[in-house]
Structures are given as structure tokens and as C-alpha cells.
Amino acid sequence: MRIEHIAVFVKDLEAAREFFTKYLGGHSNSGYHNKTTDFRSYFITFDDGARLELMHKPQVKDTDKAAEHTGYSHIAFSVGSSEKVDELTERLRSAGYEVKSGPRTTGDGYYESCIAVIEGNLIEITV
Q: Is the model more confident about 68 or about 81?
């Protein structure tokens, strides 16, 4: 068994699509729009086959993104080396994204950084 995809509601669908294609190398489909419900989505596919569904529906409310809460916490992306973790973290910092932690080696041995990206949602960049 494998996870087929992860879905995330966002307020700014185009900005989210641009982030995951520009900074994380994802490839976007042309999108979907249900005119009856005004639901829109893109599937972002990564080179290893993992997929992320970015979704937008005007009626969906944004919620507080407290760092620690029940439910999903973050999505982790492996970039292959500590140097690439450093490079991408700095690239995101320079682009105005908030680096929440790192780059650092965690107590359980991961070299990572944690970044608040689209609408405060967290991604982890790791080796």
C-alpha cells in the first residue's frame, strides 16, 4: 500500500500551484473546475510519483495554523543532501517565507528545516 495523494485546501490556488512547481519541482496538471460548486483544484506530481492535490472552494474557511495541534502537522520533502537543504532554505528565506526552524540536525538525526509557506502551512525540507 502507498499514499496516493495528499490534499490541501488553500485560499490562493494559483500562488500555491506556483510555489510547489517553482520551488519544489512539481509538475501541475491543467486543473479542474466544477462550475456548480465553484470547487477548483490542481494535482501537483513530483518526480518520484508522489502527488499533492491543491484545492480551493470559496466557502471553505481559513483556520488558525498553530504550530502544534491535532491533525496533520507538515509535509516533508527530501532534497537529497544537507547542502540542498541549506540552499533551498535560504532561497525560500530570501523569497520572504518564514523559516520556523533550522537548518539543523534534530534529536532523532534528521537534517532539516521547517518553513511556513502557503497561508502558514508548514513544509519540512530534509535530506
A: 81
